[in-house]
């Protein structure tokens, strides 16, 4: 299946959280996605009922945490129009089925594909994905991505996946609930995955603009390359080194760009040797699982580290730049693109900071990284 379908969007569909509830509920989720191609498409959706990466300190959600028991009541794709306002274009909804059924019970930790569904999306219009999910028991249920969503996403209580109007839908608060892979049937594309944390995901850039670096690269490389963004907020290299749900996604690509280390250093307080060991494990697992896969390793992005964290950051990047990780095919120096001039190269260029002096790269930084990557690539 993986050889026939390539990612249809540069939006990250990684999961870093899990839905928790005190009771049963039925909820409909609708999201608006910019596809990398337009016109008639044959789409398939792959779902994983596992969390990809650790959120915050790991007390609420962590890598490889299995989801619980839940049910897809119904799912639809539709032409979302030019304005992602909660409605879809009348007469364009196509049901998404699973083994020819509209509904599917999802077991803890399992993975599964949808059936193929054909749809035509005019240029400049969004693909809208809607599904109604029922959770029967209190506790953990389905995995999802929590952050300020990078796309317009809505939800409403009850059965509303088939609804065309925006009536009742409200803007989702820090929750993007989507299948893990949105695939378009394309055998000829080179599959290029971007595997990192919130900087890869595009966190803090403006919603629906696709101005983060991975999206800009995807736009320029299409249709020869198909980009799958599996950047995940708060993710660490040790999440990937565990060789679980998240790394499993990366292994289905022809080439993987690894950009990890910020949260290992800044949140988890890992040492340089620990981060380097995890990066080496990631590369070895990728190389060992699929013949011919190419691995590009990025330096750890600049994130205004100071003190002992700055020292760790410098030590890790020195090894990466000197090709000290075995098996890496190429090294892309993303830190150099973002950094101020030495000796203040541990600090992000001021114009690249997100609002509130947040060191997550903004849209301007996204352009700078993408331009540098494309010239280098």
Q: How would you summarize this macromolecular structure in one to three sentences?
A:
With 377 residues, the protein is of the alpha+beta class. The chain is built from nine helices and 21 strands.
Description:
- The mean pLDDT is 97.
- Helix 2 (213-221) crosses helix 9 (363-376).
- Helices cover 21% and strands 29% of the residues.
- By secondary structure, the protein is of the alpha+beta class.
- The two termini are 28 Å apart.
- The strands form five sheets. Strands 3, 5, 6, 7, 10, 12 and 13 form a seven-stranded antiparallel beta sheet that branches. Strands 1, 4, 8, 9 and 14 form a five-stranded antiparallel beta sheet that branches. Strands 16-15-17-18-19 form a five-stranded parallel beta sheet, with helices on both faces.
- It is built from nine helices and 21 strands.
- The chain has helices at residues 198-201, 213-221, 237-241, 245-250, 262-266, 272-289, 307-321, 334-338, 363-376; strands spanning 5-7, 17-21, 25-33, 39-48, 70-79, 94-95, 104-106, 111-113, 117-121, 127-135, 139-144, 153-157, 170-171, 181-185, 190-196, 225-229, 255-259, 294-298, 330-332, 353-354, 358-361.
Number of helices: 9
Give the rounded overall mean pLDDT: 97
Largest beta-sheet details: 7 strands, antiparallel
Large-scale geometry: globular
Structural class: alpha+beta
Distance between the termini: 28 Å
Order of helices and strands: EEEEEEEEEEEEEEEHHEHHEHHEHEHEEH
Report helical residue fraction.
10-25%
Radius of gyration: 20 Å
Multimerization status: single chain
| Unreliable stretches covering 5 or more consecutive residues | none
Strand content: 25-35%
């Amino acid at each position: 299946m993986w050889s026939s379908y390539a990612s249809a969007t540069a939006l990250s569909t990684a999961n870093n959280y899990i839905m928790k509830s005190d009771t049963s509920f039925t909820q409909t989720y609708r999201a608006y996605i910019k596809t990398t191609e337009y016109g008639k498409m044959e789409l398939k959706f792959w779902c994983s009922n596992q969390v990809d990466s650790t959120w915050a300190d790991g007390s609420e959600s962590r890598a490889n945490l299995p989801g619980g028991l839940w049910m897809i009541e119904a799912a639809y794709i539709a032409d979302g129009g030019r304005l992602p306002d909660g409605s879809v274009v009348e007469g364009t909804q196509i049901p998404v089925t699973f083994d020819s059924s509209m509904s599917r019970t999802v077991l803890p930790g399992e993975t599964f594909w949808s059936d193929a569904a054909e749809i035509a999306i005019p240029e400049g219009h969004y693909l809208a994905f809607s599904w109604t999910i029922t959770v029967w028991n209190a506790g953990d249920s389905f995995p999802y991505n929590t952050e300020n969503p990078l796309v317009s996403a809505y939800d409403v209580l009850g059965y509303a996946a088939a609804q065309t109007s925006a009536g009742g839908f409200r803007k989702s608060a820090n929750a993007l609930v989507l299948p893990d892979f949105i695939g378009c049937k394309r055998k000829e594309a080179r599959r290029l995955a971007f595997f990192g944390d919130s900087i890869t995901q595009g966190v803090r850039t403006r919603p629906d603009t696709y101005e983060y670096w991975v999206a800009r690269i995807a736009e320029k490389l299409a249709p020869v390359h198909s980009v799958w963004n599996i950047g995940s907020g708060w993710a660490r290299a040790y999440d990937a080194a565990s060789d679980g749900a998240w790394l499993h996604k990366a292994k289905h690509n022809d080439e993987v760009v690894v950009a990890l280390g910020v949260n290992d250093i800044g949140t988890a307080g890992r040492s340089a040797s620990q981060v380097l060991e995890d990066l080496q494990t990631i590369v070895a697992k990728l190389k060992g699982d699929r013949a011919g896969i190419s691995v590009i390793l990025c330096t750890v992005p600049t994130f205004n580290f100071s003190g002992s964290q700055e020292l760790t950051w410098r030590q890790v990047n020195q090894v990466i730049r000197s090709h000290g990780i075995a098996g890496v095919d190429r090294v892309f120096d993303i830190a150099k693109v973002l950094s101020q001039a030495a000796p203040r190269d541990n600090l992000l260029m001021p114009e690249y900071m997100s609002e509130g002096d947040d060191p997550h790269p903004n849209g301007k930084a996204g352009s700078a990284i993408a331009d540098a990557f494309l010239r280098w690539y």
